[in-house]
Design a protein that fits this description.
Layout: H1 2-14, E1 18-21, E2 26-29, E3 41-43, H2 51-63, E4 69-72, H3 76-84, E5 88-98, E6 110-114, H4 120-130, H5 137-146, E7 152-158, E8 161-171, E9 174-182, H6 191-205, E10 209-215, H7 221-226, E11 229-239
Parallel strand pairs: 9-10
Antiparallel strand pairs: 1-2, 2-3, 4-11, 5-10, 5-11, 6-7, 7-8, 8-9
Helix pairs in contact: 4-5
Amino acid sequence: MIEEMEDNENSFVALWSERVRLDCATLYANSVMTDDPFFNRVTDITCKEFCAMLDSAESEFEKRNVKPFVYCMSNERLKAELQKRGFVLYDTMSVLLYEGRYKLKYSADISIEKVGRDKMAEWIDVFCSSFNSENWRDEIVRRVSNSFEKFQLYVAYVKSSPAGCVTLFEKNSLLGLYCLGTLTKYRGKGIATALISISADIAKESDLKLFLQSFKADGLINYYVKRGFTQIYTKEIYTKPHA
């Protein structure tokens, strides 16, 4: 299942970033969202020797003026080579599978609506505010518009006010839960729980397995575990501090 989860995640990232095939890895880069660790990465690393691949990767990131991030799963030799090159551990990402047996409860004041193109701007407003990414708005508009038919967008409302958002992406009999965000003033009020609940319902109805990723630094692993997720694997993310 790990291979299928990785492919789902990378296919989603490819909707937001340029994909570059290296000799024994794949690089994704977004020259607007230059310091984002999710949309800029080297992954799918199959090398026995890493020097040539990492040379190419650093060159590709540099010419796009993008901060380099390398995703590493249980590969001590790769970690050692990265450290020789001045890379440091940036964060650890956990990949979690939904195995909840009970329907999550949330306030009756919260409703969830699937977004059509006519309300795409509303989803983008919530996303930009939730993730403090207003300076990337034009790029987000372009990416979402170009890939609109390839994923599902949902907005959570408290009464009639937009409060949160999520994106669902299907591949490999998996439903990836991405871009889960809540506006600051609605945090702690069950918005994310409601969005997870509807996502779990959609996955069940379609006979899909729901999963998501979470950075350790965000401190949300226990939050997801309490809502029915189980950690399947982790990957370490390395970067160059002054790149």
